């Protein structure tokens, strides 16, 4: 895949970049290692000052970088600006909380005495250069939620961004440079996927984090395992959205539309499988389909657009294949289901019912504005359908019954359970999944400690 900006609203290639050669990659790896040796000794106050400055600049740039993001991957412009603001918020959160999250810990006095020590301290120390392999769908947020905690912990970052968002990737390097971070603290590697393996094998790279596809996750995890390097993986998701009889149906249906179609449905944590109790299935379906039909699809630069184009021609083709396979298997199209005429990689908001386990869309992630609708006889069947997926990223449950809520918390196989709302990420809460959705956690204290050397310091009596 070429490293290029291709406008998904028109299909026009706007700018193409040469991949960095081996000499440039080597120069950047040397710089990352050298910078880490000094940056690791800076205090939290200085790191926070720099990160707060980066947040200020990002907010100032939100209109400019928002238009770049929209041009490169098709995100509706209002959502692109909001993504920039969210990133600034996360930067400020880590700037304000990192020192507390990484404070030295002292074990219980009885345990210290039992060990024969006079004093024991657990300290969090940075690891070194961390390689981040990041996707195009949230091209600012996915990077910042790695970079902010990594930099506050004293690590340095190497970014291999998706090849279709090179301008965004270069902007992020420049953002941290303008904020005053030492050269080499955060660098973008303009390289193709084939070059990742060699970078990850380099002894100067101490760990890696990846958000992306299962094949990419397997490749990075395999190499990292061979090299005995820490990894965090956030892979696909096919999140359930369960609606029980006690739910507020009007609100549930409204939120369901947003949960499925935010970012044109191209989100790992978008609700994708809508599992509705028999007693309210038809009433919910009527509201949900009406809401999906009402969404405004169009030019992502238009302030009123709610659904833009998919990010690539291949992405649209993959989505069409899933829908066509379901229809051939007997699924019913309640709305959408056919690509529109004209330029750009658009696909309409679509709802399918009558899904069976034999259909690909039941097991695979639909990365676009396509929802599947299921009917459940009771809570037990709702849980069975929800868990009948190789993924376990997050989940959404609509119920007013506390006993039901307890059951869902206990039984759903997911990294998050969101009640009477939609899944969203926040810097204060851990984010990640189970099963084939990956392992490890981003955000919160859990996220910043993922790439720390947790060191036991023992002093004899």
From TrEMBL:
GO molecular function: aldehyde dehydrogenase [NAD(P)+] activity; succinate-semialdehyde dehydrogenase (NAD+) activity
InterPro entries documented for this protein: Ald_DH/histidinol_DH, Ald_DH_C, Ald_DH_N, Aldehyde_DH_dom, ALDH_GabD1-like, GABD/Sad-like
Family affiliation: Belongs to the aldehyde dehydrogenase family.
Record's protein name: NADP-dependent succinic semialdehyde dehydrogenase
UniProt source species: Streptomyces echinoruber
Top-level taxonomic group: Bacteria
CDD domains: ALDH_SSADH1_GabD1 (cd07100)
Record-annotated membrane-spanning stretches: none
Keywords: NADP, Oxidoreductase
Upper classification of the organism: Bacteria, Bacillati, Actinomycetota, Actinomycetes, Kitasatosporales
Domain Aldehyde dehydrogenase: 3-457
